[in-house]
Design a protein that fits this description.
Elements (H helix, E strand, L loop, with lengths): L4 E4 L6 E10 L3 E4 L11 E5 L5 E8 L7 H18 L6 E4 L8 H5 L10
Antiparallel strand pairs: 1-2, 2-5, 3-4, 4-6
Keywords: Membrane, Transmembrane, Transmembrane helix
InterPro entries: Extended_Synaptotagmin, Synaptotagmin_SMP
Protein name: Synaptotagmin SMP domain-containing protein
């Protein structure tokens, strides 16, 4: 089968599957702070500056999502999930070093990179 994710509800043949999940957009990966010892990168910060476009292809009973109302509801749910977890000001941070080697305020904050005068 070419299905990537398939869920069986245990109700006698009702199967939901996702064949393809595609994200199109900008993903920022920040390696900061840089340490003088191993592991060289103290933390990895991942976020999207804007909501990425998502596209889903379903299999099984989930193929019903091609009905406009169901498809819109699933799309809104995926967008809300992404917006709440990866789109600024939200971010995902993975610490690679011990807490005493990393400035937590710097790691979990978004400092401005510059200013624009109009």
């Amino acid at each position: 089968s070419d299905v990537d994710v398939q869920l069986d509800a245990g109700t006698g043949g009702i199967v939901l599957g996702v064949r393809q999940l595609t994200f199109t957009g900008r993903l920022c990966i920040v390696l900061n702070p840089i340490l003088q010892k191993w592991p060289i990168v103290g933390a990895v910060k991942v976020f999207c500056p804007a909501l990425p476009k998502t596209s889903l292809q379903f299999t099984g009973l989930a193929a019903l999502a091609h009905y406009p109302q169901i498809e819109q509801k699933i799309q809104a749910t995926v967008d809300d999930w992404m917006r709440g977890r990866l789109v600024l000001p939200s971010q995902h941070v993975v610490l690679n070093a011990d807490a005493e080697d990393v400035d937590m305020l710097e790691t979990f904050s978004h400092y401005p990179l510059g200013a624009v005068r109009v």
